[in-house]
User: Fold this.
Amino acid sequence: MIQIKLPSGLLVTREEYATRIRQSMHVNCWRLDNHESEAMWKIYCQHNSGLAIQTTYKKLAESLPHEHKLFIGLITYLDYETDSFNRGNNFNPIMHKRLAFEHEKEVRIVHSTLNYMNDHTLPLPEPGIKLQTTLFEQIEHIYVNPYADEWYFQTISQLFDRLNIEIPLKWSEIKSSIYY
Assistant:
């Protein structure tokens, strides 16, 4: 059994180490591409509901508050049979995934509570955090699931009107007609 020594001196198993990393991080996931992905709609919005927020990487990064220790970056996809990453960096397990997920083209925003990672006497961090961000002003469009019913689009549109949300709401481009 392989054990890893934490800075506090505590020896933990590889599985305990992985659990502590997951418990010490808050992660928010985005997709970086110039086009929509039908696979992503199908995987993450299985009940024909859901919205996709469009912005740019730059606008997303600039919208994040500076007073929090946040990291934003692209996921690196690896073949774990032949590739590895530096295990001395606690962000690496969070910023790497198997090649099978490469279609996600994922960007992650990560908040770390490494003091928990390094001190086993501390209580578990809260399961979520609240951040003040300017992201709302950085959104370019909001797309509605291409497989949603018309009533779903109308409901979201009415909600936008009621809340005075002036972000353009559009059907996913996947819904548009195909011309042969």
Q: What stands out?
A: The chain has a mean pLDDT of 89. The chain has one domain: 3-175.
